[in-house]
Amino acid sequence: MNRFLVILVVPVALTGCSSLQDRLFAPVTRRLDLVNQQLATTNERLDLVNGKLDQVDRKLGETNTRLQAVEGSLVGTNQKLDGVGKSLVGTNEKLEGVDRKLAGTNMKLEEVDKKLAGTNQKLEGVDTKLGSTNQKLDQVDRRLLDTNQRLEKVDSRLEETNKKFGSIEQVIQKIPGVKPEK
């Protein structure tokens, strides 16, 4: 009960003495003033933060609107990609067929290659023979050249001989009583 009495007496006693009250509550009042200032500063900062949050909220709204437009475009793109995917399946099947045909073609080409190897060997033999034939033809050509040169000499000699026979024939015709043979 003593405590109860002290609690009742102290406020009543303090009501009459203002300087005592000021001294007694001054530290608490200063602290409360400081806390009020800090709360006012905090409230100002919260107001700034709320303003920025409003701006962020508006920007997020704009972004969401844009994202919805992009999402709509993506739906269209996905549909197109589905069509492309189906086309790719068909293309892949065709490519598999082409691969099978290419494998057959490659086998045929290997057979042709083997045959060409034999043909190439034969062609090399023919080429060798043609080389020796060309050498022989070169020799024949040289001999023919020599023969042609000799024939030209013989031809010129024959012309000279024919001229001489012509002169002799003329002389024989001038001899009386000799008839030339025709």
Describe this structure in words.
This protein is mainly alpha-helical and 182 residues long. The chain has two helices and no strands. The longest helix is centred in the middle third of the chain and has 157 residues, at 18-174. The radius of gyration is 66 Å and the shape is rod-shaped. The model has no long low-confidence stretch (mean pLDDT 83).
Provide keyphrases for this structure.
2 helices, 182 residues, rod-shaped, single chain, 0% strand, mainly alpha
What string gives the helices and strands in order? HH
Cα gyration radius (Å): 66 Å
Q: How is the biggest beta sheet arranged? A: none
The total count of strands amounts to 0
What is the 3D form?
rod-shaped
Task: Compile the SSE list and pairings.
Elements (H helix, E strand, L loop, with lengths): L1 H15 L1 H157 L8
Task: Briefly summarize what is shown.
It is built from 2 helices and no strands.
